[in-house]
Amino acid sequence: MSTAAPQAAGGRALAHPAREEIRLEGVLHALSDPMRLAIVREMAAAETALSCSAFALPVTKSTSTHHFRVLREAGVIDQVYRGTAKLNGLRRGDLDVLFPGLLDSVLDAAGRQADRLGE
Asked: What 3-state class would DSSP assign to 94?
């Protein structure tokens, strides 16, 4: 990870891969987990940064933290501290430049699957 988010108040910054460091296999791995895919679907629907607490995940806090970290380290999301909250934003622009249509295709397929399974 060669880049970090701008230094937040209190000195907490999180490492993020630069656009040129994002790899397809890392993105696909991050999106292959149903919980992480659900997080990304919710973020895409919101079209705005969401705090970690905005997600009603049926897992422990430490497991949620793990899922957000995997998404961040793969370059799928951007995380930045705002006070005590950690805001999460989808790196749609970077992903669309690197892998045109990938995110939209995955989100569309996930939506069709959810409809088919009644989720």
From this structure: helix
pLDDT in tens, the chain (119 residues): 555 444 444 457 788 999 999 999 999 999 999 999 999 999 999 988 998 888 888 888 889 999 999 999 999 999 999 888 889 999 999 999 999 999 999 999 999 999 999 88
CA-based angle 97:99:101, to the nearest 5? 95
Task: Write phi, then psi, for 2 (nearest 5 degrees).
Answer: -105, -10
Q: How far apart are CA 6 and CA 26, in angstroms?
A: 23
Please tell me the total number of residues recorded for the chain in this structure: 119
Q: Whole-angstrom distance between the N-terminal and C-terminal Cα of the chain? A: 35
**Stated pTM of the model:** 0.86
